[in-house]
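Objective 1b: paired records.
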Amino acid sequence: MQQQNATTSATPNDEAIRQLKLLVRDIEATGGLIEFPNGARAPAADPEWLDLGDRISQIERFLWDSGHRDPLTIHHENTREDNET
């Protein structure tokens, strides 16, 4: 049984989804992700942080599959084209 916060009707799962969405929005606000020719992704604000890019990609896919479809810009490093997923 899930507990609810006394001051809100949000469940812990609702809060987790909200926090994941905020994380994706923060990445979007700082330029989205860069996808390299080898398929690796990194935040546009820090192209060397591949682990974070991978985690954000996984979170974005989870949110998308769960019906939370906030856009996330993906810059393709080889062409510098912008796409939104």
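Objective 1b, second protein:
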Amino acid sequence: MRLVIIINIFTSIVVFCVGVYFLFVPIKIEPTTKILFGSIFIIYAVYRISNVISKYKIMKQNEKIDKIHKASEKLIQDLKEQKKINENEK
């Protein structure tokens, strides 16, 4: 999953750079077309990076939830074992 995040971030940076290139580098294209394509590329790059960040946060949150579930299951299992030991001692 981390490789996918790195690829998405890299792609976002490349698309952002292409958008900046369209906006600020003199090319022999009609000015409105340059502005349109440059703006679209920049907006798409910002969308991708925000999407990557939100997916990363969700992934981290799910990892924490899994840790909590594993710890609670282990605690319940330990309590059951402790209860059996206490019952056997009586």
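Residues 2-89 form one domain. Helices lie at 2-24, 31-89.
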